[in-house]
Amino acid sequence: MNKRRTCILGTGAYVPEKILTNDDLAKIVDTTDEWIMTRTGIRVRHIAAENEATSDVASPAALRACEAAGISPADLDAVILGTATPDMLFPSTACIVQANIGAVRAAAFDVSAACSGFIYGMALGKGLIETGQARRVLVIGAETLSKIVDWEDRNTCVLFGDGAGAAVIGACEEDRGILSINFGSDGRLWELLHQPAGGSRMPATVESVEKKKHKIHMTGRDVFKHAVTHMSGAGLRALEEAGHTGPELDWLFPHQANIRIMEAVAKRLEVPREKVYVNLERFGNTSAASIPIALDEAIRGGHCRPGMLIGLVAFGGGFTWAAAIARV
Ligand SMILES: CC(C)(COP(=O)(O)OP(=O)(O)OC[C@H]1O[C@@H](n2cnc3c(N)ncnc32)[C@H](O)[C@@H]1OP(=O)(O)O)[C@@H](O)C(=O)NCCC(=O)NCCS
Hints:
By secondary structure, the protein is of the alpha/beta class. The protein has 2 domains: 171 residues, 3-Layer(aba) Sandwich (Peroxisomal Thiolase, Chain A, domain 1), CATH 3.40.47; 149 residues, Peroxisomal Thiolase, Chain A, domain 1 (3-Layer(aba) Sandwich), CATH 3.40.47. 34% of the residues lie in helices and 24% in strands. It has 11 helices and 13 strands. Strands 1-7-6-4-5 form a 5-stranded mixed sheet, with helices on both faces. Strands 8-13-12-11 form a 4-stranded mixed sheet, sandwiched between helices. It has a two-stranded antiparallel ribbon with strand order 2-3. It is globular. The structure holds coenzyme A. Coenzyme A (COA) binds next to helix 2, helix 6, helix 8 and strand 12.
């Protein structure tokens, strides 16, 4: 009998209805559709309504993943949610999703790993499954970054979008599943991408709000360089651990941050451009949600089919990075 493996049993995604185009942004800040498209590859992004929080986008994605996996939320043993924009500091957004979907038997908790949150969550879920502590784990990446974006800062407000993606993972003993996960972080670089206020370091005050300390602060050029280096490094290590090479991948799902980052990573992994799944143009950078949204779209669209070898690579604030190789 094969070693106990963890498989992706079903995926789901959800994005808010409202769409914000580059031309809409050009009315708010000094930018153009041409600048945003050539520098990032983003054309439109979905933006949550005023009363829509992260759990509200996560819950429909979670239900769709359960449906695709053919299970009831009551069958879940754990709900793990990666996000940088939780509904509130506590309780976890995972607990709120648990209540929304009726995952009554599950342990629920959030993972704080910014844009790498979905793969970090997969690593934890895989561990629970392969040590026999859980049979079915729901892993979600969900964000409403529009809530913490400074809509007067053209360096950041053009990049991000809202949405959620989810996957039910579970034990399987077939010749497929998640073959390897490699992840890491470098906390020395946390200041390059962070939200200064709202936690214990800088609780909310009139001054913190006035100084926009509750918004995303980012040094874009440095983030760019580190993203390429660390996504490529994690991807190569995960490939090696899985006993595969980049050219063998049927699909690479990189975190959808910037088309130039994605192409640079694909080049280092020796994955041809046509095998890089890109939906960034339509969603922007949805942080922890970007990989599961792309994966769900590729599976539902019939592009990613059973038996295919796929790679997932992510990078985010922390800095954090992660990569996974799986046979779907
Ligand atoms: C943000 C990013 C797109 C900027 O692209 P870039 O090619 O590095 O551009 P630069 O930072 O060198 O800025 C070039 C100029 O464009 C300007 N600029 C920035 N945003 C702009 C916008 N939306 N529209 C027009 N001009 C803009 C800058 O002010 C700068 O002008 P200056 O030279 O007069 O100061 C790029 O650095 C990036 O994608 N970084 C990674 C961000 C990311 O992915 N973060 C999340 C990681 S999970």
